[in-house]
Structure formats: structure tokens, C-alpha cells
Design goal:
heterotrimer; A mainly alpha (about 325); B mainly alpha (about 325); C alpha/beta (about 325); B: about 325 residues; mainly alpha; two-stranded antiparallel ribbon; 13 helices; disordered N terminus; C: about 325 residues; alpha/beta; Rossmann fold; four-stranded parallel beta sheet; 14 strands; about 20% strand; carbohydrate binding (chain C); SBP_2_dom (chain C)
Chain lengths: ~325, ~325, ~325
């Protein structure tokens, strides 16, 4: 057993160093490229709107997109596996609805919040266990089914009603400030981002995630408990969806079964723009973080000069494609 | 070596056959159950409705199957469908005397171009399909909105001949069903009996070895997305003609239904696997769910959950059956 | 990592130096339910027209999808732009409350139109027509069409649609009257404002209730989808159809006799009235209390009235569209 895990680690290191050899430059450029885009967006936005370049505005803007960004952190792990989880939007709805119903049935709010997190954990765990036990099914299929199922359960529970009336302090999650200008959600997100950064880049767990993404058969033979790690990651993804549910519910002050629909695609866009490859094994947290803020500020800035939403979507779509195209071209130029 | 691989191939085919049979069995059980709850279910008129309403989904599913076989995915088809539908119906409302066939060709052409762009991005620029199609989904949707100026094209603006595309019938069979049948026949032949068709499987099973064996992987990939686009364009015309209205948010999110139908039909997201015959049962199951749930008087609030549960069960059961047969085959080989 | 942090800090400090934006006056914003829907486009047209008459700056916003989440982001953007008033057609009556309260706390006048937000999140609501009247009139219409007896069904938008749910409640109340003893409401189905789903729900109604006499569809997509199904099956005269729909979408089915008549109000007027009400709030001609009156351009004098626990301004009665007048309206909206 001890031997096994030792072997595992050395093998992972080998894989990693081999990868680094060919991809180091690429990643270096990729994240700098994102950073340049990030700066460009701020310059463009500040040219467009006189209101943009303002500390309050910029801090406030983060409140509009950070709820889904929490899921992007854990989704990064899922996509590094080469998997995907499209049930997160439905998980938000289910966790939020159950929390609201239990609170209104008399459960104290702190307990209701715990239940919300628990629902997320269970939903994610179910995804994980199904994916692991049914290897012939891909994560897309499993999470596609649970996506419909989880939201369906939320509909059964709340039907056409809304549920809310939360205590005042619960508002703080989505609307509160620390030191009067820093949004609480930004602080919470930074803490979460640091945790996930460390988890992915500084722990053996993170190394194993990369190893599985590169080659799960090889990592299985080298003693990595692929199943266990996959279940943990999907459970984590469910948990992060539940955390997003807390912030979103607080932001809306009430909940319905149809909230957070379509969130999964927004989250996936954040992660893939960050340079995480859906074919697995590649990507870093710093890229995802940059991409979260790129998409968020771009949307907010263009919205600030009242560009129609549909046009903003076109811009984001083209940005997504061009940035990936550019990085691919660079990769080629490195090779030749 | 060759013997072994042919043996494997046979068992793989058998697994797929049994899988299809189990799915058909599931469909039969489901139908009988629904029939018990509502005796109108298995009537000719309802079956006609069911098939008509599933026709567009089934056409899209053929294209999606080929995309998924090459290890890709296309999230943009709902947007392509809307774009084609909007352009076609705007043309029809301006030139009411336009022949319906021309309208169909316009729609297919727009879809082909959209698909070809995506194919180019995926094949030539090596952009992952999920990113390329996610991005282009936004772009197509936005373009549809911009050219329509937020307006809809309504029934009174469409010529009768245009609306007749999907309401008309030949020999008592609705045109939509006929078009779907023709497409299935064409693509059944294309995928199974042409060299290009077989190459699609080769690319999906192993792009590397396909490349080594001299297949132009880029060309096949590009072709597959173009076909998908063309079918989405065709579906756009059919959709707009069927519902006699074109909106910029037409078929928003429809790609998920199509992917679900493919997945139930045994098309593996991992690539290289999937048959037209299996696809039919997948599409049929999906169509029955959409048709039957409102008919058996379940609360509308339960429909989503039931749909999700049935898809999950169907997928899990077929996986279990496949596994069972796989292991019994292994034992036999050991003997 | 370090390089990024340093560059980020530099950027942030640049932002700190700039700032202090002066606000312009007379900025009026409208947020409709979603883009790409002619009804909402016309509401924006009306609003824009009113603000142009008044002489202010107008901001039109429409999210890509009809969700409360996207409207919250837009409200935040408008707060940042220091607008003077926000008129909103809410995608959820309750979920916008924290965002709209934040707007009001920054001195922005908030009013809702078309689809109300709850009384705590607005100063006044522009009501296109009395929901009670909208609900009751549709029952009266279907009763007249089917001759006072038989089964009827309702085909609505999504199960979460607040307006539709209120109207359906009033329909049910109207049905309690003794003169409708012979009418039975067999089902409320939801087409989710999707064409395909509305069509299959209509077909399911026809099959599940072979004796069905009438369908009420209080939303454009559903009534047009039902009109299409009834037309294709040649059921005009056998199954009656009424409800609320855009004249352009329904022209075909009103002319071919599938739907004898239906109702709607003029979305241009709804937006127009919202524009003048916004101006009245900003210039403090009204504060949103019952009994106040103001001049609403070509619509004349309008009064703020009590409705539930909030206040509203009523546009008028729902307008009846039939064979006689549909041609003059189908090109308008």
C-alpha cells in the first residue's frame, strides 16, 4: 500500500514534468494573454462609460457575477478530469428551494443553511457515485439526467410558489459590505479561490486530479484511487453549487424552482476561457480566476453603456473563440 | 489477431442489439402503462401527432449523432435553427410567391454555412467543439435578434404554400414524418455503406490511428459539423412552417433535448459508438415522454422529475444489461 | 503569481485616482422582461416616446432571457449610472426586492409596469388593466362562445408566471358564480411559452378531454399555438378559443374563425404611461400615494389608486380584438 502510493507520486511527477516540458511556455503565454485581455477590457470600458473607472463601481460589479464563480472553482477540477457537470444550475435550485421551505416550516436559519449545503453535497455525491459505478456512461449523460431530475424535484416541492421571508442578516451574504465598500461576496470568493488554488496546485490531491485527467488508467495502476477522488470532486462541485445557492438566494430574497437556469453554461464558459481543456489534464486556477473577472467585467462594463444583452452575448462568444484560437496558433508557432 | 478482433466486433454488435431490444422493451412497457391511463394514447391520430412532433427532433438527432461519434458536441443547433427559421420566414414574408422548395433550400444553405464555420473552427483551428459551439451559439442567437429587430414573423405574414410544408401530407403521411424518414434512409446508407460514413466511426474510435491510416481527419470533422448545420437549417424551416411563427428565441435550449435523445439512443459521448437504429429508439422514447406525460394527467409540476428519472433509469438499465452481456462473453471466451 | 498581484495592485491604484463622476439629470430607464419579443419592444417604444416628449434621456434595457437574475444585474448597472427612475416589468414579483430597494435607497424612483413587483419594491405600479377584470372577462367570453355549458381548459405560460397565475385565480373566482354551473374547468396546462410544448399540451388536452368545448390561453405563444393546432385539425366552431395575444400573432386565427375574439391592451400605451408616471415621480408631482393625479400626455389625467397593499395607476380596460378590427392592429403590434 505504502509502496503503491509512492509509486503513484513518482509516476505523477514524471507525467507532470513531461507535460511541463512542452506546455510550460504555452501556459505562460496563455495566462498573460488573459491578463492582457483583462486590462484591455478595463481600458475599453473606461473609455466607454464615465462611471466605470471608479473603485465603488468596480467593487460593486463583482457582486453581479461572483455567485456562479464559486462553482467555476470546483468545475475546474471536474473539467481537468476531462468530465463535465451540467447539473449545477439545477442543484442550486434544489438546494435553495429546500432551504427556503424548511426555514418557513420553522427550522432556524443556520440549520436551514446547513441543510442547503447538505443537499448540494448529496446531489454532487449522487452524480459522483453514478459516474464512478457506471464507467460506461460519461459524466455528460449522468449530469444531463440529474439536471432534469433535480430541478424536477424542486418543482414538486414548491410548485408555482415562491418562498422567502428570510431573516435580515441573511441579506448580508448577497448585499453586505465589509468596511462599507468591499462586498462580502468578494471576500468570501477570494477565500474560496485561495483554498481551491492551494488544493489544486499545492497538494497531492491536486496532483492526482491532474494525473487522472492525463490518463486515468495509468494513474489507477500507479495506485491513485481514481474512484474516490472523482466522487470527492463531484461532491465538492455540488457543495460549491449549494454555496452559490446561498448567495443567489440572498441576492433575490426569495426563491423559486426556476432560478439559476442556464448557469451551467456560464460556468463552463468561465472555466474553458481560463484555459482548462475539456479533453482533460490541462489548466490552472489562475487562468480560471482571470477568466471569471474578464467575463464578469466585460458584461458589466458593456451593460453600463447599455449595449443590448444580445450584442454582449455575441461579443463574449467571439471572445471565447478568438482567445482559444489565438492560443492554439501560438502553440503551433512554438512547435515549428 | 484478426480473428480476435472480429470476435470482439461481433460481441460489440450483439451488445448493441441487445441494448436496442432492451430499450424497445422499455418503450413497450411504458406505452402499455400510458395506454392504461389514457386509452387515446395508442390511437392512429395520437401516434401521428407523436411522430409529427418528434420529426424535427429526430432530424437534428441524426446530425448530432455523427458529431458525437467523432467525439464532438454541438450546442449551437438551437441557435442555428432559429437563425435559419428567421431568415427564411423574413424572406417568405417579403416574397410570398416564393416556392416552398426554395425556402427549404435557403434554410439548408444558411445552416450549411453556420455549420461549416463551426467545422472550420473545430477542424482547422483545433478549438474544442464545446467551446466553438458555445461561442457560436451566442453569435448566431445574437445575429438572429439583430436581423429581426426584436420582431416576430407571424402566421399572417407567411404564405399558405410555406405553411403547407409541414401541414401537407402525401399518401396520408405528414410531410414532416416523410422528410424524417427520407433523412433516416439516406443517412443509414451514408453511415453504414459509404467509405466516408465508415471513416466517421474510424475518426471517433481513434483519431490518431485514423490519421495514420490515411484518413483526412480534418475533412471528416469539417464535414460532420457542416451536415449538422445543414440539418439544423432544414429543421429551422420546418419548425417555422410547423408553428407558423418565427421568434429570435425559437428552440432556445433545444440542443439539450437532442443530446438527451442521442444519449438514450446509445450514442456514446466518448466517441466511435452509435447506430441509426439505436438512435430511432432513443428519439422515440424521448418523443413518447413529451407526448404521454401531459396525457396521463400527472401534475405538471411532476413532469420534469418523471422525465429526468425515466432518462436516468433507461440509461442505467441499458448500461447494466451491456455489462451483464459483456461479462458473460468474457466467461465464454475463457472457456 | 506575484507578477499578477503586483500588476493588479497597480491597476487598482490607477482606478482609485480617477473617479467622481458627475450625474446628468433626467435619465429614465426601462427594463422589460426580455429582448426579442414584440410585446416588450412596443413597451419600450411607448416609454421612449413619452420620455422624448418630456425631454429626458432614455435608457432601454432588455435581458436576453426572461429571468430575475439578469434583471438584478441590470438594476445594478442602472444604479451605477445614477438614473433618476427605473420602470421595470418584473420577471419575478419578489426576487427583485433587495435590488430595487437598494435603488430606492440611492434616491432612484422605482415603478413597475405590466408585471408587478411586490409593494415593498416599488413606489407605484402601472397596471395595463385590472387583473380581476382580465380574469373575469375571459371566462365571460368563453362562456358566451360555448353557449354556457361544457368543459374548458386553460393553457398558460410557465407555472411561475405571476401575471398569468393571478388572472387564472380570478378566472376560477368568476367560475364560482351560479351562471357558470354548467362549465367545468378540467385542467390548467402549462406550455412554458415554448411553441413546441404549447402545441403538444394543446394536443394532449384535445385527446384527454374529447368533450372539451373551449380553451383559454392568457399568453401570446400559447394562444397562437392553440390557434395553429385547431386550424390544422379543422376544429373551428367545435372547440372555441380565446385569451390574450398579440394581434399580429393572432390575425390569422381570428380571420379564419378559430378564435372569434380575444383581448389585449396596447403595450405602447403601457410603456407610454410608465414614462409619464416616471417623470411625475422624479419631479415629485406624485409620490405614489393614493389620490394623487398627474397629466400623462395624450392619455390625459391619471390617478394613483390603492391596490392590495400597494398603489397603482390603471391604463384602462382590456381591448377586444375581433374580425372587424384585427386588420388595423396586426401591423401595429
Amino acid at each position: 500500500m505504502v509502496n503503491n502510493s509512492n509509486n503513484g507520486i513518482t509516476l505523477n511527477r514524471e507525467i507532470k514534468s513531461e507535460k511541463e516540458f512542452s506546455l510550460k511556455k504555452f501556459f505562460f503565454q496563455w495566462e498573460w494573454l488573459l491578463f492582457l485581455i483583462f486590462i484591455a477590457i478595463h481600458i475599453i470600458n473606461s473609455q466607454l462609460s464615465p462611471y466605470y473607472l471608479n473603485t465603488y463601481t468596480l467593487l460593486d460589479a463583482t457582486m453581479t457575477f461572483l455567485d456562479k464563480a464559486f462553482i467555476a472553482l470546483s468545475m475546474t477540477f471536474v473539467i481537468i478530469f476531462g468530465d463535465i457537470d451540467i447539473s449545477v444550475g439545477s442543484t442550486i435550485a434544489l438546494a435553495s428551494v429546500i432551504m427556503a421551505v424548511l426555514y418557513n416550516a420553522g427550522l432556524p436559519m443556520p440549520l436551514a443553511i446547513l441543510v442547503c449545503l447538505l443537499v448540494g453535497v448529496i446531489a454532487g455525491f449522487i452524480n459522483g457515485i453514478l459516474i464512478v459505478k457506471f464507467k460506461e456512461l460519461s459524466a455528460v449523460i449522468v449530469t444531463l439526467s440529474t439536471m432534469i431530475l433535480y430541478r424536477g424535484i424542486a418543482y414538486i416541492i414548491l410548485e408555482n410558489q415562491a418562498s422567502g421571508g428570510f431573516p435580515m442578516w441573511f441579506n448580508f451574504l448577497g448585499w453586505g459590505y465589509i468596511k462599507t465598500i468591499i462586498p462580502f461576496i468578494l471576500v468570501a470568493f477570494i477565500i474560496a479561490a485561495v483554498i481551491f488554488y492551494v488544493l489544486l496546485h499545492k497538494t497531492t490531491f491536486g496532483r492526482k486530479v491532474y494525473a487522472i485527467g492525463n490518463n486515468d488508467v495509468a494513474s489507477l495502476f500507479s495506485g491513485v484511487k481514481v474512484d474516490k477522488i472523482k466522487i470527492i470532486v463531484f461532491t465538492l462541485n455540488g457543495l460549491m453549487a449549494a454555496i452559490a445557492a446561498l448567495f443567489l438566494t440572498s441576492k433575490m430574497g426569495s426563491t423559486r424552482p426556476n432560478i439559476a437556469s442556464g448557469y451551467e453554461l456560464d460556468v463552463i464558459a468561465m472555466v474553458v476561457l481560463g484555459g482548462v481543456s475539456t479533453s482533460g489534464g490541462k489548466g490552472r486556477m489562475i487562468g480560471v480566476l482571470l477568466s471569471i473577472f474578464i467575463i464578469g467585467f466585460l458584461r458589466y462594463g458593456l451593460g453600463l453603456v447599455n449595449v443590448p444583452d444580445q450584442v454582449i452575448l455575441i461579443v463574449i462568444g467571439i471572445l471565447l473563440i478568438f482567445s482559444v484560437m489565438l492560443s492554439n496558433l501560438k502553440l503551433f508557432s512554438n512547435k515549428s | 489477431m484478426s480473428e480476435k478482433s472480429s470476435k470482439n466486433k461481433i460481441s460489440l454488435e450483439r451488445i448493441q442489439q441487445i441494448r436496442e431490444f432492451s430499450l424497445i422493451g422499455f418503450i413497450i412497457v411504458l406505452s402499455i402503462f400510458v395506454q392504461f391511463r389514457n386509452s387515446n394514447f395508442l390511437t392512429m391520430s395520437n401516434i401521428d401527432d407523436l411522430l409529427t412532433n418528434t420529426a424535427i427532433l429526430s432530424i437534428l438527432a441524426v446530425g448530432m449523432m455523427m458529431v458525437i461519434i467523432t467525439r464532438g458536441i454541438d450546442l449551437s443547433i438551437g441557435a442555428t435553427l432559429a437563425l435559419s427559421g428567421m431568415v427564411t420566414s423574413m424572406t417568405v414574408s417579403n416574397y410570398p410567391s416564393l416556392h416552398p422548395l426554395v425556402a427549404l433550400l435557403i434554410g439548408i444553405f444558411i445552416g450549411l454555412i453556420s455549420g461549416a464555420i463551426i467545422g472550420l473552427l473545430v477542424a482547422k483551428f483545433n478549438i474544442l467543439p464545446i467551446i466553438a459551439t458555445l461561442g457560436m451559439m451566442n453569435v448566431f442567437r445574437g445575429i438572429t435578434f439583430l436581423i429581426s429587430g426584436g420582431k416576430w414573423v407571424s402566421a399572417y405574414q407567411m404564405s399558405d404554400s410555406f405553411k403547407a410544408i409541414s401541414t401537407g401530407s402525401i399518401l396520408g403521411i405528414n410531410n414532416l414524418i416523410l422528410i424524417a424518414i427520407i433523412i433516416y434512409l439516406v443517412f443509414y446508407y451514408f453511415i453504414n455503406y459509404t467509405r466516408t460514413g465508415r471513416k466517421i466511426y474510424a475518426v471517433g474510435s481513434s483519431p490518431e490511428s485514423a490519421k495514420i491510416s490515411g484518413i483526412n481527419v480534418d475533412r471528416i470533422t469539417w464535414l460532420v459539423y457542416s451536415i449538422m448545420g445543414g440539418l439544423a437549417g432544414l429543421s429551422g424551416v420546418l419548425w417555422v412552417s410547423k408553428f407558423a411563427s418565427a421568434q429570435s428565441n425559437t428552440a432556445s435550449g433545444y440542443e439539450m433535448n437532442v443530446i438527451a435523445a442521442c444519449v438514450i439512443g446509445g450514442v456514446s459521448i466518448a466517441g466511435g459508438e452509435g447506430k441509426v437504429t439505436g438512435l430511432i429508439s432513443g428519439v422515440l422514447l424521448y418523443g413518447i415522454l413529451e407526448n404521454a406525460l401531459p396525457m396521463i394527467n400527472v401534475s405538471p409540476f411532476w413532469q420534469n422529475a418523471i422525465q429526468g428519472a425515466v432518462i436516468l433509469i433507461a440509461v442505467l438499465v441499458s448500461a447494466l444489461i451491456k455489462r451483464r452481456i459483456g461479462s458473460s462473453n468474457k466467461i465464454r471466451r475463457e472457456d | 503569481m506575484k507578477k499578477f498581484l503586483i500588476s493588479f495592485m497597480v491597476l487598482v491604484s490607477i482606478f482609485m485616482l480617477v473617479g467622481n463622476v458627475t450625474a446628468q439629470e433626467g435619465k429614465y430607464a426601462i427594463i422589460v422582461k426580455n429582448a426579442g419579443n414584440p410585446y416588450n419592444e412596443k413597451e419600450m417604444d411607448g416609454f421612449e416616446k413619452a420620455i422624448n416628449e418630456i425631454g429626458g434621456e432614455v435608457i432601454l434595457k432588455a435581458p436576453a432571457e426572461p429571468t430575475a437574475e439578469s434583471q438584478i444585474i441590470m438594476i445594478e448597472q442602472l444604479i451605477t449610472q445614477h438614473v433618476d427612475a427605473i420602470a421595470i416589468a418584473g420577471n419575478d414579483p419578489d426576487a427583485l426586492q433587495p435590488a430595487l430597494k437598494k435603488a430606492m435607497s440611492r434616491g432612484i424612483k422605482v415603478l413597475s409596469l405590466d408585471s408587478a413587483v411586490n409593494a415593498q419594491s416599488r413606489m407605484v405600479h402601472i397596471n395595463q388593466a385590472d387583473p380581476e377584470q382580465i380574469g373575469r372577462v375571459q371566462i365571460q367570453a368563453i362562456s358566451e362562445m360555448i353557449g354556457g355549458s361544457g368543459q374548458i381548459a386553460v393553457l398558460s405560460a410557465t407555472s411561475q408566471a405571476a401575471n398569468q397565475n393571478t388572472w387564472i385565480e380570478w378566472m376560477k373566482k368568476e367560475l364560482e358564480k351560479p351562471e357558470y354551473d354548467q362549465i367545468e374547468l378540467v385542467k390548467v396546462a402549462y406550455g412554458d411559452d415554448l411553441r413546441d410544448k404549447s402545441v403538444s399540451e394543446t394536443e394532449a388536452l384535445l385527446k384527454s378531454y374529447p368533450d372539451l368545448k373551449g380553451i383559454i390561453a392568457p399568453t401570446t405563444v400559447a394562444i397562437a399555438a392553440a390557434g395553429k393546432v385547431l386550424t390544422d385539425r379543422g376544429l373551428q366552431g367545435e372547440i372555441e378559443l380565446t385569451g390574450l395575444g398579440l394581434p399580429s400573432e393572432m390575425a390569422e386565427y381570428i380571420k379564419n374563425g378559430v378564435c372569434d375574439w380575444m383581448y389585449l391592451w396596447n403595450p405602447i400605451d403601457v410603456g407610454y404611461l410608465a414614462g409619464y408616471a416616471a417623470e411625475a415621480l422624479v419631479t415629485e408631482k406624485i409620490t405614489g400615494n393614493p389620490g394623487e393625479t398627474f397629466e400623462a400626455g395624450r392619455l390625459g389625467s391619471k390617478e394613483v389608486i390603492q391596490a392590495g397593499d400597494g398603489t397603482e395607476i390603471m391604463l384602462g380596460a382590456p381591448f377586444r380584438f375581433d374580425k372587424e378590427n384585427i386588420d388595423q392592429w396586426k401591423d401595429v403590434y
